[in-house]
Amino acid sequence: MEDRPALSPAARRVRRGLALLAVLCVLVTAVALVARARTASELPAVHVPASAVRGTTVDRYALRSRAADRKLVQTVVRPAGDVRGRPLLVLLHGKAQDPAWVAGAPLRAAVARLGDRAPVVLVPADDGGSYWHDRRSGRWATYLRREAIPAAVRRYGLDGRRLAVGGISMGGAGAYALAADGGFCAVGGHSPALWTSAGATAPGAYDDAEDFAAHDPIGLVRAGRARYGVPLWLDRGRDDPFDAADRAFVRALRAAGERVTVRSGPGGHEGRYWERGMATYLRFYADALAACRPAR
Hints:
Blueprint: H1 9-37, E1 57-65, E2 70-78, E3 88-92, H2 99-102, H3 105-114, E4 120-123, E5 134-135, E6 138-139, H4 140-156, E7 163-168, H5 170-178, E8 186-190, H6 209-215, H7 217-222, E9 232-237, H8 243-255, E10 260-265, H9 271-291
């Protein structure tokens, strides 16, 4: 076997440098993989002590909807004390989400923390995938505006002029579309399920391209068919698959001169992310409702 020539000191330094660089690359890759693995599914669970929801009440009652042609259970979270004259927040659930989950302990704790400033929160039901607009499966926006909201206002003696609407995922898209015609003091989307074209939509989100064109929040704003003129909110996790479309919506809103608060944080498109945001969401709606002075 031939003897290999001895390396010069400079060559040995280069070799050691290359070996160190390789080790650093491996470490950086490992750290990146660990960080990527810590997605929303690994966010810490939200623990809410029983004392945090004290005084709040969850009601459920059935509403027979002509617009949707079915009986739908309404879930309402009431703050402590007399709620007559309070504003109403309509919080729309996401696709296949249980309204009872939306009205769970994190939301109740957020309502309790607001005290006298807390709105009554209505979490209406749908067929699980309505996207909250009028379509073949039912007139879901009509059901909200003409049936579910008026029924809650009457039932609890609320101030029907002070209304806010928001939603999670599918509910966020529905909230923006519902409020395009006005009538609300604030509108919010929490990881709203938006798309930039009909061809990119999830199956069942819209009936067809025509339905998408009629109810797509991004298109409505770009075409000047949605003029909110009230405080708007949009948040999503940094790992959310709807991030690009949500950014496009924010750009459209700002180009149209709308006031929109945008937030982003750790997490993705899943329950723990929204549970962790409930207190922040409720503060936004409470502040907007307190400042709202609708025309008499």
